[in-house]
Amino acid sequence: MSRESVTRLALIGCGRIAQVAHLPALEKADGVDLVAVCDPSEDVVHAVARRYGVPSAHTDQAEVFQDPSVDAVIVAAPDRFHRSIAAEALTAGKHVLVEKPLATTVQEAQDLADLVHRTGLVLQVGAMKRHDQGLQYARRFVAERLGGPRSFTAWYRIGDLRPGIEATLFPHVHADPAARETEAAFKADRRRYLLATHGSHIFDTVRFLLGDVASVVVRHREDGRDQTWQVLLTTASGAVGTVGITVDVPGLPSEGIEVFGAHGSVRVDTHFPFYRRASTVHAYVDGATTVPELTDGDAYERQVEAFARAIREGGAPDPDVDDGVQAVRLIDATATAVETGVEVAL
Amino acid sequence: MSRESVTRLALIGCGRIAQVAHLPALEKADGVDLVAVCDPSEDVVHAVARRYGVPSAHTDQAEVFQDPSVDAVIVAAPDRFHRSIAAEALTAGKHVLVEKPLATTVQEAQDLADLVHRTGLVLQVGAMKRHDQGLQYARRFVAERLGGPRSFTAWYRIGDLRPGIEATLFPHVHADPAARETEAAFKADRRRYLLATHGSHIFDTVRFLLGDVASVVVRHREDGRDQTWQVLLTTASGAVGTVGITVDVPGLPSEGIEVFGAHGSVRVDTHFPFYRRASTVHAYVDGATTVPELTDGDAYERQVEAFARAIREGGAPDPDVDDGVQAVRLIDATATAVETGVEVAL
Amino acid sequence: MSRESVTRLALIGCGRIAQVAHLPALEKADGVDLVAVCDPSEDVVHAVARRYGVPSAHTDQAEVFQDPSVDAVIVAAPDRFHRSIAAEALTAGKHVLVEKPLATTVQEAQDLADLVHRTGLVLQVGAMKRHDQGLQYARRFVAERLGGPRSFTAWYRIGDLRPGIEATLFPHVHADPAARETEAAFKADRRRYLLATHGSHIFDTVRFLLGDVASVVVRHREDGRDQTWQVLLTTASGAVGTVGITVDVPGLPSEGIEVFGAHGSVRVDTHFPFYRRASTVHAYVDGATTVPELTDGDAYERQVEAFARAIREGGAPDPDVDDGVQAVRLIDATATAVETGVEVAL
Amino acid sequence: MSRESVTRLALIGCGRIAQVAHLPALEKADGVDLVAVCDPSEDVVHAVARRYGVPSAHTDQAEVFQDPSVDAVIVAAPDRFHRSIAAEALTAGKHVLVEKPLATTVQEAQDLADLVHRTGLVLQVGAMKRHDQGLQYARRFVAERLGGPRSFTAWYRIGDLRPGIEATLFPHVHADPAARETEAAFKADRRRYLLATHGSHIFDTVRFLLGDVASVVVRHREDGRDQTWQVLLTTASGAVGTVGITVDVPGLPSEGIEVFGAHGSVRVDTHFPFYRRASTVHAYVDGATTVPELTDGDAYERQVEAFARAIREGGAPDPDVDDGVQAVRLIDATATAVETGVEVAL
């Protein structure tokens, strides 16, 4: 790839998700060059820059936005900063890959969408599962072979064995203890935090395969720290389905979706992302189930490569800012439906 | 087993389910003796009696009820006759094993329950999955190891490959063409028929593992002959869950339930009953999943043996008439919830 | 099907395998008509004739062979009679479907093959797994997609949970206690009996997918009643593989084969035959695994239909008498290889 | 852990396996401190030291051996240097964790074992699968629940989809092009190289679960670059089994073993190591299969922690040098058995 065709990226926010997901992906991704990192913690940002050989390290993001050599930024700061940092970057003329959720309210998400449309810059939301090779296979299968989708069932269950898996899979993380404490406080409203964090994944998967959601009815249950949402959905196209979000269940985590159509059906089992395995897909049509054996399993690497391609080639990013708005709307509608007990239209 | 301890049974209705399920089970079951068969079709009843060596064959059920040597009857007539035949049998002093659904309306089911309670006779409902060795394992696991159930997901999907499986597994069935035509007409209201026939199984499974259901919200979809119900349920104990009933999906049939509790979880995959395999169970607790390897898989045989034991030993049948009433209530509430779109309390 | 195109069959030997496998299959198979049954036990033969509505019952097989209305016979007598009954039937001008193994010695099997070739009649060996829809799929896949087979692993393990499965799946069997005792004595040389009974299945599967076997090396182990053979094979085409035969292992039975070729691989898991499920096949080529969802699972029914077609249409039966000879040769070579410890060529 | 109780390690050889496996493991392992790295390539050794923050980098291993602050070394140099570097390290008084295979000939391996016994130092062989949580579970199950092992089947199949998986899972590797070319030349005798590299894993697994091997018979097949070994083994305890080693098969890699004993059986499916998942175990006994849900899946991290414990606590390393000798013997016997065609005793 010629030097000109490489997208020069800066990473804003070097906490856990940056070190665990984005930095290893950036180091290997084609078509990108990580030229700057930024984090409020001086210790963290320098440790990261040293480890990944990044030439420029900052504690003030304004410096990054002023740097004309930076084409685009990845926003991996805490959720409540997503919108403001993304807006600042766009205003400075930078393309943006922003971690999900796009914003914490529908209004803020919509404002950001307006800004994207005004600037004409690329904004991609970090719902990286759209770049999971298995989910992409399933999406094509739904479009081309399944017949019209009629019903579906999706689940997203965090298992209480997850900490052991993370301890095994995660690299050593350089953390700023003060920052960690501050963030824990912001996650204290677990019901809201968990729905936004996990719901944005599984709702985006539903939309990726089935299109827009028209309405939800929700039942919720709280057991100490544990939360369960059972959601009954109708899509704009008329498919009826359910989504279960549970944090935690005993045992291993489990995530997936089954879609049934006029001619076929597809089941997607999505693995814990840091196994770096594409989702396992079982696609049934015409008397046989096909299981693609997929090996390109780092969704974060594929995500940033797709982002760079969208910038270079001018195509639409996936998911785009409007998808990000819809994901926030769905989270919001789910929370409202828990409070009211009745169906909420989107 | 001594002669006295054997329950003398008559079979009322010798159509498909009788020939496919009950007669092979009765031939092998311990503690029962099939002494009479009855069917309106003379051809059918004699073919069946000859094949299974049954000493007495009738076309008029009144003769059976008058026979003092008959201890109990199995009612395997079409759904709309369940209640009346069962009532007639009870009135004649016979214990009854009646195919599900118990009745076609809640009122009729309740009337039958009243009659059972008045007579003190045993009435067991033919929801034979309660006698599936795997579901029984799961029920014990839920009670003893799972901790309080919090959430669940159940599914009952008839696959369009089912006819081929039935053609392979079913013995040759002696049928009366006229009766077959009559019955097809009664099944013409597919939405109602399918919900009653299939819903009574999966709703009974939910109640078997999780207890009474307090309310349902339902979304329904119809595509030509195909039907889908997506049900959001809250149990009396506060568990939240979903049940999906789909007739047909492309491919193989699929039936099961997953329950998540405070300490463990259990998944039950129920096989097409005529494979005569106990449900496959995965029971998780304390860092390990247990899969019992169960071999006694004919739920119909186990059902009639349990019925005979209940008669001899005086214990409660399972499911009893009140379970049968609840199953009809759930079907009724589901149908109402489809019409109204809002939550229906039971 | 016109009357002329139906093959009129007689069943010689009405013991367990006849009642459990052949009679239910014959009752449903297309293109065949069971016109006579024969068994030395008068009780058994009449019970069977009554149950299956067979017009003619005999205790002397000579009567069957003299009956000009009988086109063909199924030989389901004990192993040691296979050859002589088959020879008698051929001599009387009847086509023959004879249970495996074809004979107890290579010489007798060869003599029978000579007789078949002289008479021009159809003789099919009852290695019914060749009519398993899954194995047939695998065979086509090996021929058309796999590339040349290079290596393989096959296993045939009887599990000690098998009696419970049989008790569930088998219909009530009418047995003659004296005959049962006599036969038990003939099975007393377990090593020989088990190798012939089970080995003939798995060796025929190997030949069905991979062609002739050129040599074997074997290690054998005996633990009380339990037997293990571990066989290292080279095929005539140069593929190298292993076959493990174990009777019993703890747990469920397990049977299957994996074949690896130049372009693809295939795994076949063969279910206990009385589940009446086609083998589960995983066929890998070009980045995807295909799992055909097969529903026509009664290999005994498919076997007798194929036999009738071979008679009517004049094609080669499968397996034919030469396949039967090869199966006996393989069993014989395996037994010799156990004794000598060195490679035995076929 | 107190400073004194931490083992100070040096890593000799910083090529692919070091960067992919050892360095990430060392960064996270408890009880160890990586104080020096050494590699003939100055570029590579400095890149590695920078990335992992190692205080001391060398191109001459003699410097490492002279450093009194180094307690122990990990030898991750190419196979043909294992023995000489290990011997040099032991002579310098360092404990050694040496990548498998221990040596390229039985004599050299034995000489090294003699040296270990003379020095009293700890030498552990890098057959890291002994530290796979799943295999460790299986070993305990075999010892405590299975009853005496009677038969087994093991397989080790490299799939042609492996390069894609490696590209996804491996971090960016700093390589010296000249070194890579040199090493490729040493791997040119693929038959020998592949048997040593892969065989040492699966043979060690057999010994880990079943004890010493008494004899082997082998059939080998070569197809261009592809190699297959089918091995028939008898263990010292009398178990009979097979091991299939195939490089490449079409599709995904696959590795595992099944062991059948008097009372139970166990199946181990070992995942590609860089998924960092413990082997999946199915352990059957007494009517139920247990599947432990294991989360501590980095066998390289567990290996070096066990090595450090063996040094600190004085226990035997696992595998020890004698296990390493036996692994080389088995590889050697397998190669001889291919040449001679007859059984080779160990």
Write a compact overview of the structure shown.
The structure is a homotetramer of 346-residue chains. Chain A is of the alpha/beta class and 346 residues long. In chain A, 40% of the residues lie in helices and 28% in strands.
Q: Could you walk me through the main structural features you see in this protein, from its secondary elements to its overall organization?
A:
Chain A has 346 residues and is α/β, with parallel strands linked by helices. Chain A has two domains: 3-127 and 303-320, Rossmann fold, CATH 3.40.50.720; 130-297 and 327-345, Dihydrodipicolinate Reductase, domain 2, CATH 3.30.360. Helices cover 40% and strands 28% of the residues of chain A. Chain A is built from eleven helices and 15 strands. Chain A has helices spanning 16-28, 42-52, 61-66, 82-91, 106-119, 133-144, 162-169, 177-186, 190-210, 299-313, 321-340; strands at residues 7-12, 32-38, 56-58, 72-75, 95-98, 123-125, 149-159, 213-223, 226-235, 240-249, 254-261, 264-270, 280-285, 288-292, 344-345. A nine-stranded mixed sheet of chain A has the order 14-13-12-11-7-10-9-8-15. Chain A has a six-stranded parallel sheet with strand order 3-2-1-4-5-6, sandwiched between helices. In chain A, helix 4 runs parallel beside helix 5 and helix 6 (133-144) crosses helix 9. Chains in contact: A-B, A-C, A-D, B-C, B-D, C-D.
Domain tally of chain A:
2
- Estimated share of beta-strand residues of chain A: 25-35%
- Pattern of helices and strands of chain A: EHEHEHEHEHEHEHHHEEEEEEEHHE
- Residue windows where pLDDT falls under 50 for at least 5 positions of chain A: none
Shape estimate of chain A: globular
Q: What's the architecture of the largest domain in chain A, going by CATH?
A: 2-Layer Sandwich
Multimeric state of these chains? homotetramer
- Show the largest interface: A-B, 40 and 40 residues
Give the CA-CA distance, first to last residue of chain A: 44 Å
- How much helix, percentage-wise, in residues of chain A? 40-55%
Overall mean pLDDT score of chain A? 96
**Helix vs. strand class of chain A:** alpha/beta
Largest sheet of chain A: 9 strands, mixed
Q: What is the CATH T-level topology of the largest domain in chain A?
A: Dihydrodipicolinate Reductase, domain 2
